[in-house]
Specification:
It contains one helix and ten strands, in the order E-H-E-E-E-E-E-E-E-E-E. It is mainly beta and 135 residues long. It is globular. The protein has a single domain, classed as Hypothetical protein, similar to alpha- acetolactate decarboxylase, domain 2 (60s Ribosomal Protein L30, Chain: A, 2-Layer Sandwich).
Length: 135
Amino acid sequence: MRAHALRLHPGEDLKQKLDTFAEQSGMQAGCVLACAGSLSRARLRLADQNDGQMFNGPFEIVALSGTFSLDGSHLHIAISDGSGKTMGGHLMEGCAIYTTAEIVIGELDDMRFRRPLDPQTGYDELTIETITDED
């Protein structure tokens, strides 16, 4: 595994920046190893909901996890408000950085993540391929 570090700045979109990083780096399989930061607003798709919901902050990012690649991402985030109330869900575009986001990404050199439609779930689900010397 190879590690990459990013720092996002105020106003930047968290999901867009992660997806752009995967695209620009040509990342075949990546995961979030660590994230500390804050959001001025958050857009999450809550459990068993079809659409995202916007929340106005500020919020602390208390956890960010998931996988991403050139073929798409599946990221979950947990955020807390000024009273410590915590909520989480699927990370969607529209999460604006408040002060910073310090992110460490792991790149899995011998894997390729793809997201074909899974007829059983109706979603683009993760498939994992091992990269060989012939690839």
